[in-house]
Amino acid sequence: MTTERTPPPTPADRPIKERSVAFEDLTARARIREAALEHFARDGYDRTTIRAIAKTAGVSPGLLRHHYGSKEDLREACDHYVFEMIHRANAEILSDPGAAAEVQETSKPFGRYVARSLADDSPTVGPIFDELVTMTEAWLTRADDSRPDTPTVDRRVRAALVTAMKIGIPLLHEHVSRALGTDMFGPDGERLVALALLDIYSHALIGQDVAAVAAAGYNEAQHQYRRRAIP
Amino acid sequence: MTTERTPPPTPADRPIKERSVAFEDLTARARIREAALEHFARDGYDRTTIRAIAKTAGVSPGLLRHHYGSKEDLREACDHYVFEMIHRANAEILSDPGAAAEVQETSKPFGRYVARSLADDSPTVGPIFDELVTMTEAWLTRADDSRPDTPTVDRRVRAALVTAMKIGIPLLHEHVSRALGTDMFGPDGERLVALALLDIYSHALIGQDVAAVAAAGYNEAQHQYRRRAIP
DNA sequence: TGGTTGATTATGCGTCTGTATAGTCTGGGA
DNA sequence: TCCCAGACTATACAGACGCATAATCAACCA
């Protein structure tokens, strides 16, 4: 396994598209990883082809195999990379206990990738979800402290649901953007989403009396048919 | 394009599956649709093969093409079918204004299919999402009435986000179930999710003072780098 | 200078998938 | 009885994809 080396003075690393932001004088290995992250996040694992990643990275499909063993290995490499990046980001967030950073967690650059991977059942991103749940759990602890009543449901269960809900937003970004009238990953959309989430999170969506009635009535409701499962 | 015809000799192509467990004496055409719904919901559109659907339905791949034109046409047929079913379900829900039915909307049988289709960017399910947003919007209207303050963000924007959040739960059912310790589509899990959602929805997750500070601080925050986009 | 190593490419192979086509079987009307 | 429409199957074809291999090229070291 080669490390992130600086390429030899290869001058012809340049046929690529990128100029504006960041660096395009990256290692081919790094370019492949970046291209894979974008493609996996945008198109999903299945729809993404090795050839497409290679084309975006400006290399041949064979080189991809040379650096990463297979398509699945490349996915795992991306997963581990993102896992590290999230760890790093979490450390920064913990030092700055602002709520905004936490709220828009899933709107970050890696959010799209994580969301896609979780929905695609990537075998190695389970721990990422669990860690996000743990983060939400710690956050819920503070919320529970300022609650008059006692929560009736285990905190981790609620944390898992809140986490899944947060991830649902970038997952359905296309439809959300359509409802917003602007790209939710664009500057305006990102701000709009953050402000809306702050409003949503800071208010109860249903009355506690209604919830109590519904919860009581739920336990005795025998409803809806079941569909057969695929053998 | 043939419609849902009644097969000549077959005893019944009855409105099907309404009662308890559906039967296997369905039209081949109906069996194909049922199998496709399950496969698409469980494996996603791309991972699902025509041959797999045919095998589950107990027919040959050719018959699938005979009834539905192509794989994409089959998907559209499923979308329209689910769209009708949701319409029908909505009518029932509106007559029974219980909150529980609304909360567990995405836990219904078709929820998995809708969630998958939305995440898979199915071209014909956009209207379904928009309708769910409208439902949520109507629901938010009642919530806003019992709010002391005035919402700062457009109601439809908040409705879209809440809708996406709700759909995120069945989408990440695998990870949610792992955190729950039981299958969230099973009897226990379904009840647990419903009760947890009632608890979550009936309480603010962050304080309004915190939210105000965060919202104020957000507009002047210049944070995080941007990643390049694929051309 | 010569040779080894690693980055990189070109090319081909086997498989899977969607699609197309031709053929088979069955029931019901004339 | 004939026969044909429609449900259904078997098989084949073309393309795409992941994967593998061999060849080429540049740099570094003895």
Folded structure, characterized:
The structure is a homodimer of 231-residue chains. Chain A is an all-alpha fold and 231 residues long. Helix content of chain A is 62%, strand content 0%. The first copy, chain A, contains 11 helices and no strands. Chain A has helices spanning 28-43, 50-57, 61-67, 71-95, 99-103, 109-119, 126-145, 155-171, 173-180, 187-201, 208-218. The first copy, chain A, starts with 27 loop residues before the first helix and ends in a 13-residue tail after the last helix.
Core attributes:
homodimer; 231 residues; mainly alpha; 62% helix; disordered C terminus; DNA-binding
Q: Please identify the oligomeric state.
A: homodimer
Poorly predicted sequence stretches spanning 5 or more consecutive residues of chain A: 1-21, 222-231
User: What is the mean predicted local confidence, pLDDT of chain A?
Assistant: 79
* Major β-sheet annotation of chain A: none
Q: What is the end-to-end distance of chain A?
A: 41 Å
Concise synopsis of the structure shown:
The structure is a homodimer of 231-residue chains. By secondary structure, the first copy, chain A, is mostly helical.
Element layout with pairings:
The structure is a homodimer of 231-residue chains.
Chain A: H1 28-43, H2 50-57, H3 61-67, H4 71-95, H5 99-103, H6 109-119, H7 126-145, H8 155-171, H9 173-180, H10 187-201, H11 208-218
Chain A binds a DNA duplex (30 and 30 nucleotides) through helix 3.
